Amino acid sequence: MKVLLRARESRWLAPAAVAIAVLVTLLLTAGPIRLAGANPMAAYQRYLVTPLTTVGGLNEVLLASTPLIFTGLAVAIAFRVGYYNIGAEGQFLAGAAAATVPGLYLADAPAAVALPLALGAGAIGGTAWAVVPAWLKRHAHIDEVVTTLLLNPVALLLIQGLLNGPWRNSESGFPDSDRYGAGYTLPAIVEGTRTHWGFVIALVLVIVTFVVMSFTPLGLRLKAAGQAPGAAQFSGIPVVRLQWRCALISGAIAGLGGAVQVLGVQHQLTGGISSGYGYTGVVVAALGGLTAGGVLLVALLLGTMTVGAQNASITLQLPTQMGAIVSSTLLLAVVSVLSLRHYRLVFRRRSRVAGEAS
Amino acid sequence: MNLPVFAILAATLTIATPLVWAALGAVINERAGVLNLGIEGTMYAGAFCGFLATAMSGSLAFGVGAALVSGLLAGALMALLTVTLGVNQHVAGIGTTLLLVAVCNFTNRLLFSDGSQTTTEKFDRLLPGGGLLSQYPMTYVAFLVLAPAVWWVFRSSGFGLRLRAVGENPEAADAAGIPVAKTRYAALILGGALMALGGSFLTLSLLGSFTIDIVSGRGWICIALVIFGRWQVWPVVGGALLFAVADALQLQLAITPLFSDVPNELLIAFPYLVVIAALAIWGRGVRYPGAYLKPYRRA
Questions:
Q1: ipTM score here?
Q2: Long-range CB contacts (< 8 A, 24+ apart) of A4-9?
Q3: At residue A144, does pLDDT exceed 90?
Q4: Distance, in angstroms, between A132 CA and closest chain B CA?
Q5: Using CB atoms, which residue from B87, B102, B216 is nearest to A153?
Q6: In chain B, which residues have their Cβ closer than 8 Å to the Cβ of A161?
C-alpha cells in the first residue's frame, strides 16, 4: 500500500470529505459532552435540530447568523486575494463605535436620514480600522497578519475608553452608552419578531459578492491574485492594488456588520457588542471555502449552533463554550480531511506492477 | 515628574518574561518554516493547565509539568495539521487557538461553575528586597538560561542547523538527507512547550489564579516581536523588553497624578501601538525564512 499525490481532484471527494469531517467532529466532541454529564445525542439534537423546528427558533438563528455573515464575508474577500485580514474583530468593533456617533449626537434624525448615516458611518469606521495595516502592507511590505491582529485589542480598548468616558450612560452611570434616537432602529422584517433588515443587507452583500466572484473578469483576477500572485503579476494583474482595495472593502463590510448589530439588536453601544464575531468570521470563511454561498451556509450553521448552545446550556446544563468547541473542532476536521483528498491510497501487488512494466 | 526608574525596570523584566518564553518558541517554529497562530491558544492552555494541576495536586512542580505537556500536545496538533496534512497555516493556527481557548473555558466552567475560583500556591520572588534582581525564577531562567540556550542551538548545534535548513530550503535539506517532516515536528513540539510555559508564568508566578481571557493578546504580540526581531534570538528578546518597558511605563503613568486625566484605556493601548510603530519603522523589507508558510511535499 502506498500513499501517492493525486494528479487531479475528483469531484465527489469534497462533499464526501465534509461528511467524514462532520462524523469525526461528532465522535471527538462526544467525550467532553459526556464529561459534562449530558447525553451526546441529545446535545447534538439541541445544537442542530431543535432551533430549526420552531418559528421562534428559526428567527433566533437568523438573528445569530447575521453578524457572522458580515465577518465571514469580510474575511473571505480578503483571504481570496491573499490578504490575510485577521482583524475583522477590530473592524467590527470600530464600525459599531462609528455608528454610535450619529446615534448619540444626531439623535433626532428621522429614520430615512438616520439609518443610511449610521450604516455609512459603520462602513467608514471599519475601513478606517483596516487602512493602517493595508497601507503598511502596500507601502512597507509589513505582514498584515500581525498588524490586523494587534489592532483588535486596541479597538476593544477604544470602545471601553469611550464607554467609561464621554459615552457613559447618563442615567445608570454604567459603562454602556445611552440608547440611540428612535430613528436609529433597523426595523424587524416581520412585525413582532427580532430578525431585522440587517439580515437582508447581509443577503444582498452575499449575492453581490457571489456575482462579482463568479461572473465578472474582476472575480477571476481576484482569484488569480490570491492563488498565484507571481503568475498574476506577470500577466498584468495589479496584485498589490487589488489586495489594497479588497483589504479596505473587507474592513468596510466588517464595520457595516458592527453597525448593523448595534442598530438592529442592541440600540446602544456596549463593551460586549462582539462576542468574538471577527474570529468566528475566520472559521466561517475557511469552512465556506472562501465563497459567498459557502459563507452564507456556514454562518447559518454556526448561527444554529449558537442558538442550540444557549438552549442546551439551559435544558442540559451544558456550558455554552461547548458550542465553540464543536465549531472549532469542525473547522480543523474539515480542513484536515479536505487536505487528505489530495492523496490517494494505492493497493497493488508486485506482480501486477511487473506485468505493467513489461 | 519623578519616575521611579528602578521600579519600572523591575516591572519590565517581569512583564517581558512570558513574552520571551513564547516568542522564542515562535522563533523556533518560524525558523523551521511554520507560522504558528496557535500561540495565543497554546499560552492559554499552558496558563490553565498549570493552574489546574497545581490546584488539584497542591504542587507547583506538577503545575509546570502539566503546562509543559499541554504545550507539547498543542505543538503536536499544529504539526499534524500543517506538516503532515499541509493545511493553510493561518486557518490551522486560528482554529487551534479557538479550540484550545474553548476547551479551557469549558473545563474551567465545569469545575468552578459555582464561582469558587480557587487560588493556588505560586512561585515566590527570589531575593526579596533585591530591587531589580527580585524576580520570579522563570524570569531568571528566561534571560540567563533559555535565551542563551536557544541562541546556541541555532548557532552551533546540529539540530539548529537542520532546523534552519528545513525552514529555508526544504528541497535542498531533503536532498541532503535531513528528515524535513521530523525536524518540523520537533520544532513545533519544542516551540509549543516554550509557549505554554510562558503562559503558565501568568498563573503560577504572577497571579496564583486563573481568569478568563488571561493571555489577552500576548500571543499576537509575540508574533509581532518575532518579525520585529527578524527571527534572531537577541533582537527578539530586545523587542520583548521594548514592549515590556512601554507596558511598565503605562502602568506607572496610570498612577501618576499628572496623567490622571488621560483615559486608562489609552495607556493600556499604548504598548500595542508602540509595537505597530516599531514594526512600521524597523519591520520594512525584512527577509522571511525561505519556506515560510509553505508545506513541503516531495514531488
A1: 0.92
A2: A4/A343, A4/A344, A4/A345, A4/A346, A5/A342, A5/A343, A5/A344, A5/B297, A6/A341, A6/A342, A6/A343, A6/A344, A9/A341, A9/A342
A3: yes
A4: 10
A5: B216
A6: 263-266
Identity of the residue in B99, B216, B227 whose CB atom sits nearest the CB atom of A332:
B99
H/E element, B130: none
What whole-number distance in Å separates Cα of residue B23 and Cα of residue A47?
A: 38
Q: For the segment A23-82, what is each residue's pLDDT rounded down to a tens digit?
A: 999 999 999 999 999 999 999 999 999 999 999 999 999 999 999 999 999 999 999 999
- Amino acid A353: pLDDT: 47
Nearest CA in chain A to B275: A150
Chain A closest CA to B76's CA: distance in Å?
14
Phi-psi map region of A236: left, alpha, beta (phi>0 left; psi -120 to 50 alpha): left
Alpha carbon distance A348, A334 (integer Å): 29
Indicate yes or no: CB of A331 within 8 angstroms of CB of B263: no
Interface test with B, best of A68, A83, A146, A151 (most B CBs within 10 A): A146
H or E stretch at B125: none
Find, among B145, B191, B201, B142, the residue nearest to B25 by Cα.
Answer: B191
CA-based nearest residue in chain B for residue A151? B272
Q: B203 vs A161, B25, B56, CA distance in Å?
A: 27, 19, 14
Q: Look at A339 and B263 and tell me if their CB atoms are within 8 Å.
A: no
| Ramachandran angles phi, psi of A318, nearest 5° | -95, 120
CB nearest A141 (choices: B87, B272, B285): B285
Using CA atoms, how far residue B262 sits from A155, A164, A205, B268, B269, in Å, is 17, 12, 40, 11, 12
DSSP bridge pairs for A343: A5
Write down how long chain B is. Answer: 299
- pLDDT over 70 (residue B41): yes
Read off the pTM.
0.92
Mutate to test the interface with A, among B91, B103, B297 (most CBs of A within 10 A): B91
Cα separation, B287 vs B279, in Å, equals: 13
Neighbours of A347 (CB within 10 A): 6
The three three-digit cell numbers of residue B73, written as one number: 500536545
Structural contact between residues A2 and A344, judged by C-beta atoms closer than 8 angstroms: no
B chain contacts of residue A282, beta-carbon cutoff 8 Å: 90-91, 94
* Average pLDDT rounded to a whole number, residues B167-184: 96
* A321 vs B87, B91, B102: nearest CB: B102
